[in-house]
Amino acid sequence: MSFDHKWNRLRESNPEHSANYAQRWRKLVDAGHDIGGEARFVNAMAPRRARILDAGCGTGRVGGLLIEAGHTVYGVDLDEFLISVAEEDFPSGQWHTGDLADFDFAAAGITDIDVAVCAGNVLAFLDPSSRRQTLANIKSTLKSGGRFVAGFGAGRGYDFADFSADVRSTGMLVDLQLSSWELHPFEPDSDFLVLIAERI
User: Where do the Methyltransferase domain residues begin and end (predicted)?
Assistant: First the structure.
C-alpha cells in the first residue's frame, strides 16, 4: 500500500526540498549550533554498545552521533537523497531507504533493538492513515523491554493525546512524557512532546 506522506508531497512540489533540508543542518553545525540533544538523550537511556533504530533517520544526524558513542545504528528513511547523505557522512551506519509503515525490518536484520528513536518531527510528516501501522512496525523491531522514544512539536497535525493513544494501541507501555529533550516536565500546555514507551 502506498501512503500519502506529507514529506513526499513536499518533495514533489519542490525537487530541491531534500537537498535544502540537508544543507540547513550542515549550516547549523558549521555555525556552531548544538544539534546533539536527541542523541545524548538516547545515549543516556541505552545500554553500552546498544542496537539502535533511527526511524526516519534523514541525514543520520542523530544516528551518526550514536555511532560515535559506540552503538550499532540502523537507519530507515523514505528519502533516498537523505539516505545518501547519511551513507556518505556516517559510513559505519546501516542505512536503508524505505517507508517505516511497511518496511520489512526482519528481512534487513533489524531486530532485537534496544532503543528505537523517532526524532525531528518525523511523525508529523506521516500520512495519518499510516500512523498506527508505522508505530506497530517500529515496535516489532524491539526486544522485550526495548524502548521507543519519539519527539515532535505541537501544531503539526498530530495531537499529542492521539499519538499517546496510538502508541498504547500497539501494546507498548507509555513510561514517561517530557516537554523537551532536556528533560523538562510535560505540562498540558507544552508545545513539544518527548514520549518514552516500552515493549513489554
Answer: 52-146
